[in-house]
Amino acid sequence: MNLHIKNNTHRNLTLKRAVVAALRATAFSMTAVGITAFSLPTSAFALGLGNMDVKSSLGQPLRATVKIHGASELIGDNCFTLIGDDNLENAITSASFKLSNIVNDEAILSIRTIQIINEPITSMAIMATCDVNVRRDYTLLLDPPTSVETQNSADEESTFFAESTIKSHRAKQLKPEVIEPQTILVN
Fold first, then answer.
1. pLDDT confidence of residue 103
2. Maximal CA-CA distance, the chain
């Protein structure tokens, strides 16, 4: 009976050693996978095109911005292209890009068109082609110019005219200096 207990204890110790060895091997392989993942180039999962913020209205050239995530100093305006796609309805076919405000791997991509956008629903596809190819399709819903925009321009005009009136009123309040004629004797 004593011999039987010794054999079970020996088996338990052997089993425990095998489990510990397996856990150590698993921990080592997980560490190796983690180190490998961190040593991959960051461009593999860095660049991203954010949401588009449209600043123009219907009947105007497009003015919009897109936040670029994972931007590096290596990318520039020429890294972005507009993709013509037959599947995109009322697609914008030409635009100019300007990359600015590169801070902490984020940048702002400004998008401008020369053509006036007269369709309330239009689309565009932007592709980043520098380190990796990233494409994002955008559908734009353009609102007509609001009365606020009209009011802002009217306010600018009224401010201009008010400033002109104040200047002319101040000019009337100033009394001109009277200069007395002087007699100059010439020999």
1. 82
2. 152
Instruction: Give this prediction's pTM.
Output: 0.54
Contact criterion met (CB below 8 Å) for 67 and 99: no
How many CB atoms lie under 10 A from the CB of residue 38?
8
DSSP class of residue 177 equals: P
User: CA 168 to CA 156: how far, in whole Å?
Assistant: 19
User: Of 53 and 37, which is predicted with more confidence?
Assistant: 53
pLDDT at 138 over 90: yes
Strand partners, 64: 54, 111
Residues 6+ apart with CB under 8 A from 111: 52, 62, 63, 64, 65, 66, 95, 96, 97, 126
Residue 106, φ and ψ in degrees, nearest 5:
-125, 145
- Let me know: does 61 contact 116? Beta carbons within 8 Å: yes
Q: How far is CA 1 from CA 4, 10, 14, 22, in A?
A: 5, 14, 20, 32
